[in-house]
Design brief:
- This protein has 181 residues and is of the alpha+beta class.
- It has a domain of 122 residues: minor pseudopilin epsh domain (minor pseudopilin epsh fold, 3-Layer(bab) Sandwich), CATH 3.55.40.
- The protein has a 5-stranded antiparallel β-sheet with strand order 3-2-1-6-5. Strands 4-7-8-9 form a 4-stranded antiparallel β-sheet, covered by helices on one side.
- The longest helix has 52 residues.
């Protein structure tokens, strides 16, 4: 059995493939489309990092409250704005003795700020801390609000709820009044 090589007589010559000019034109259109979409995609990803960090911080407040109630001991969510880190540990734990302690670093595109750090009474290792009590409430000396923002100017505030039992997220440009709705 043999097969014929060369151009097929049944197909016209114009159906054989793309010309170099057509390929260059398509690649140019793709490059232009990518150049237009890339900045929007970068902003979208930055916004996702801020939202994820805010949700993680809110989840940690809920975990701290649950842990304080279940263990019957105060639990602190400490915030180190200088190192852009935060974590969770029992109040009475000596350094490194809390096996369930957790430490987190803030995403590089997000900035964490404690609202009015000078007014904070609850501290852990000279760092402001949200103190969750065994009855499920938040200590009055805990910070009223934490601020998370990114380079685009988007901001999430973690503020104490009206009933002063927990924290919630609010998206505002200015500091919300703690406990106000």
């Amino acid at each position: 059995m043999t097969s014929a090589t060369g151009p097929s007589e049944s197909r016209p010559a114009c159906w054989r493939g793309f010309t170099l000019i057509e390929l260059i034109l398509v690649l140019t259109l793709l490059a232009i489309a990518a150049a237009l979409v890339a900045p929007r995609l970068a902003n979208f990803m930055r916004g996702r990092a801020l939202d994820a960090e805010a949700r993680r911080l809110l989840s940690l407040t809920r975990a701290a409250r649950s842990r304080a109630v279940s263990e019957g001991l105060p639990v602190l969510l400490w915030v180190d704005a200088a190192q852009q880190a935060y974590g969770l540990e029992r109040e009475d734990a000596a350094a490194g003795s809390d096996a369930r302690a957790q430490d987190f670093g803030v995403d590089g595109s997000v900035r964490l700020v404690v609202d009015h750090p000078g007014a904070v009474a609850t501290m852990l290792r000279h760092l402001p801390a949200l103190r969750f009590l065994p009855d499920g409430s938040v200590d009055e000396g805990s910070p009223q609000a934490l601020c998370l923002n990114d380079s685009t100017g988007a901001t999430w505030w973690l503020v104490r709820t009206r009933d002063r039992m927990s924290y919630e997220l609010r998206r505002t440009a200015t500091p919300p009044l703690a406990g106000a709705r």
